[in-house]
Amino acid sequence: MGAVAVSWWGKLIGGAFGFMLGGPLGALLGGALGHQFDKGLRGMDQLGGRGPGPGDQARVQTAFFTASFAVMGHIAKADGRVSRDEISLAEAVMDRMRLSPEMRRTAIRLFHEGKGSGFDLDAVLDQFRREAHRRRHLLQMFLEIQLHAAYADGSIDAAERRILDRIRERLGFSRHEFEHLENLVKAARFFTGEGARPGAGAPPSRDRLAEAYKVLDVAESASDAEVKKAYRRLMNQHHPDKLVAKGLPEEMIELATEKSQEIRAAYDTVMESRGKK
């Protein structure tokens, strides 16, 4: 675990009052961490709430971690039950984050908090947006994680889609932006894992090429310059180091790296089809 991760998590568990969020996110995290965290909240009150405010990196990382797993649980319960695939997806995210045992237990508890009947999605999203200081790329990564959760069982049902649409609206994304993020998530199967890249000298399959254009959010008639511009814009949005600097928990850097690899593979697919590789 990197130094930044140790900083935000270690200080949170240690009761550093400045990182206590308050509000719905603080209540969720307090419930997940238990009695020790409650003591920290009382201590914060005694200190008059002093400490880093919204936008501080460690505080944003805490908010991102809390909101991600709680909302993931809420989406999983949208259709009235939590499937094994949805639980596996949450566990897979935790595995890829290489969470410590203590962090993993907290993430699981947050997932269950999100499944509760009293979960206030709008309040959680509003506070998360404030804590993140509306950092667009960070909010986008959050939405992508929730889309991955919704697609855990292979498709999105009507109840899940309604929740995702609420998340989209609450975080300030247009329908076109959301559809593009959904294309990024659905296209992952074409650009990751075994056989992700076409064979040497072999033209990409028609389906793969169509998905590549969707990932880059350009038409097949786009010029090479337009394709390259779209590619660079997406790579900038998903640059792992930049996302961590904006408040993405360091443990989640692998998720951003995977997305960058998918975008690169999509770009390579398009350029290969044009004889540019």
> Largest sheet at a glance?
none
Number of strands: 0
Instruction: Write down the secondary-structure element order.
Output: HHHHHHHHHHHHHHH
Please state the CA-atom Rg, rounded to the nearest Å. Answer: 20 Å
> pLDDT below 50 for ≥5 consecutive residues: which ranges?
1-6, 35-52, 193-203
- Structural class label: mainly alpha
Taken as a percent bin, the fraction of beta residues is under 5%
Q: What global shape is seen?
A: globular
Helix share bin: 55-70%
Span between N and C termini? Answer: 37 Å
What's the tally of helices? 15
Mean pLDDT: 78
Please provide a written account of the structure.
By secondary structure, this protein is mainly alpha-helical. Helix content is 69%, strand content 0%. It is built from 15 helices and no strands. Helix 2 packs across helix 4. The chain is globular, with a radius of gyration of 20 Å. It starts with a helix and ends with a helix. The model is unreliable at 1-6, 35-52 and 193-203 (pLDDT under 50).
